Amino acid sequence: MDPALTGTPLSGATGTAQYSVRLDHVSKSFGRPGGGQAVLDDVSLTVAPGEFVCVLGASGCGKSTLLNLVAGLEQPTRGSIEVPGHRPALMFQEHALFPWLTAGRNIELALRLRGVRSAERRQGAERLLELVRLKGSYGRRVHELSGGMRQRVALARALAQESSVLLMDEPFAALDAITRDVLHEELSRIWAESPRSAGAADRPLSVMFVTHNVREAVRLAQRVVLLSSRPGRVVREWRIDLPQPRRIESAGVSALSIEITDQLRGEIRRHGQH
Amino acid sequence: MASTEVQQQSDMADLGAGLDALEDVPVRRAPLGRTLLAKALPPLTAVVLVLLAWQGVYAAHVKPAYLLPGPLDVWDSLHDQWLQGTIGAMIWTSLSRGILGFLISVLIGTPIGLLVARSRLVRAAIGPILSGLQSMPSVAWVPPAIIWFGLSNATIYAVVLLGAVPSIANGLVAGVDQVQPIYLRAGRTLGATGLRGVRHVLIPAALPGYLAGLKQAWAFAWRSLMAAELIASSPALGIGLGQALENARDQQDMPTVLATILLILFIGVCVELVVFSPLERHVLRSRGLLTDRR
């Protein structure tokens, strides 16, 4: 019953920026300093350049807080967070697209805020829409798009930031299973093509993807990190060596999902026994 | 290996295209002629019914004709003024004051509203005063304004501003308060912070509430203007609708009194129909907040 059953040691934890994201003994509590509610406790986690990491946990594990910390929207109570390079891009469970702008203009705003000249914005937005297979949707209003299309526009808007780190906070949780399959495929493709694709300039794209869906994590990630709940601690991690493209219903994904689910349930059960 | 990968990717792309096609619901809009008819017919019918009732009361001689003239007497008064060429100048005198006063109110009320909405200290300090000012009849400002500024345009504009500025500021505050926090978070992660956040996220997100404030501010500006013109009446100020109303009362000219009241009402309705209604509908429709009711 050793909770610190961590997997293979991580490469690239050296002094130079051999990582895209590094959390070093990060703790976060809300409320009064000292006496507040601990949400994250001593979390250390490194994401290598171009790596796809899924952070998995039940409710109350501080997944969203973790992403907010990395995104710089909140500050850690203790420990340090390093994200070399640009401000990370963040995608939410809600599409968070601005309803007063068309799909294309939402992307153009991200380009504009990054400092892209106005003459190049339209072309950039069209290219990103094509990347998420929404060619021809430039002028459509957000409310005219389906849930899956909105999340694809949101992905395109996040990619428009040209950050080498993409943070995703349960982005597909509100979608139906068929649409989610399609979006898993899109995300895998865009991530795999990232050094060449329109979004991420010449750097490979690192993804930190937070979810409570075990199969989703195994379907997408190179590495799955399991967090305990209240407070969130790293319990264990798995390297996923299954070849891509994976199918979520394949035997390999299922077998590993069962193993991880058992461990996750064990973590949740601990909260029922005092 | 590579070929199955390509196969799965194109299968998924087709699946995605199929889903998109299934989700697409064509938006139908009724033909323009029928929309106009459906919109114009009920209010026109109501106006005709009111005119008929008025004519009926007039014909029954409930009150003597010099106290309650009929619709035709009022129409004659309007027609006479039209022939004398005074109507246009009168309307323009009032309308130009109303528009200028409203625009100045926008310039003053908007930054006040932003400050109150975004700064807890400013809100605690002047928020209640703004709400109080909004419910205060701006006619009450006419006497002090006359004492300060005399019978001048400054008096009229002061009263208009005191009527309209609180509505604009409060409308913007309400609009900002209703902005979903997710938009602000999304804006911050995109790099829209500080003034850029206000310009690209906060103001557009608060636009529906802001517009409602502007609409109310116009109504308040117009009625404050009429009150000011009615009381602060002087030959030096030129003849607006309010002064015309006061002059007609002075001459016991009841048809002209009623004609002027109808003009004041007509201008108010026109500005609402021509400016604010279409603007509000456009904003709400483009955000999917307006569903066609039948």
What features would you highlight for this structure?
heterodimer; A: 274 residues; alpha/beta; Rossmann fold; 2 domains; 7 helices; 20% strand; B: 294 residues; MetI-like fold; 11 helices; 81% helix; flat
Please explain how this structure is put together:
The complex is a heterodimer of chains A (274) and B (294). By secondary structure, chain A is α/β, with parallel strands linked by helices. Chain A contains 7 helices and 9 strands, in the order βββαββαααβαβαββα. Chain A has helices at residues 63-71, 103-114, 118-131, 147-159, 177-192, 214-220, 251-272, and strands at 21-30, 37-47, 52-56, 78-82, 89-91, 165-169, 206-211, 223-227, 234-239. Chain A has a 6-stranded mixed sheet, with helices on both faces. In chain A, a hairpin with a 6-residue loop joins β1 and β2 (37-47). In chain A, α2 (103-114) crosses α3. The radius of gyration of chain A is 19 Å and the shape is globular. Chain B has a single domain (70-284), classed as MetI-like (MetI-like fold), CATH 1.10.3720.10. Chain B is flat and about 95 Å long. The termini of chain B are far apart. The model of chain B has no long low-confidence stretch (mean pLDDT 88). The A-B interface holds A 71, 73, 87-90, 92, 94, 96-101, 109-110, 112-114, 133, 141-144, 146, 148-149, 157, 161, 178-179, 181-182, 185-186, 189, 243-245, 247 and B 1, 5, 8-9, 12-13, 15-17, 19-20, 23-24, 27, 182-183, 185-186, 188-192, 196, 200-201, 204-205, 207, 283, 286-289.
